Amino acid sequence: LIILNELRSVSSGLIQQLIPFIHNGGSLVVLPFGRPDGPEYSALLKSFNAGSYGLLDTTDTRISYINLEHPLYSNVFDEIPENLDLPFVFQHYPIQLESRTKQETLLELQNRGPFLSVFQVERGKVYLFAVPFNTDFSSFTRHAIFVPTLFKIAISSVVEETLYYSIG
User: Fold this and answer.
1) In a 3-state reduction of DSSP, which class is residue 23?
2) How many CB atoms lie within 10 A of CB 65?
3) CA-to-CA distance for 7 and 110, rounded, in angstroms?
4) pLDDT tens, 34-63?
């Protein structure tokens, strides 16, 4: 698992190192910084066919949906209360999706935009957050869903080897 935490720029050399890592089963988490709609982030996301970031949206909103059918959130909740208190989002970078991406929205905003998306790339995955882990952007890092989300991303990033084989 590699986490790109608010990189100011993404070099072409880094992108070239990430491509085989992801294609061979690695996972990448992208947390935007500054102007993620710029050419560096665009080149990174295009190399994985993982959409793009839009311009900063400063509209207050909140996370309104958790994709409980995805393996990332299986066995996280015993029971889901009817009026679940989910994190607030003060500003975010909209994730713009292309029509031919293999994308699943894991956490969704009230405006139906993705807060956290996962893209299947060959044998690996790219997790794209709409916000950095900064309290100026959201209350996500202070919410109870934060730890299980990152924990399950890390656990699901482990490539499982076959432990045994049956002969005959």
Assistant:
1) helix
2) 16
3) 27
4) 777 677 788 889 899 888 898 999 999 999
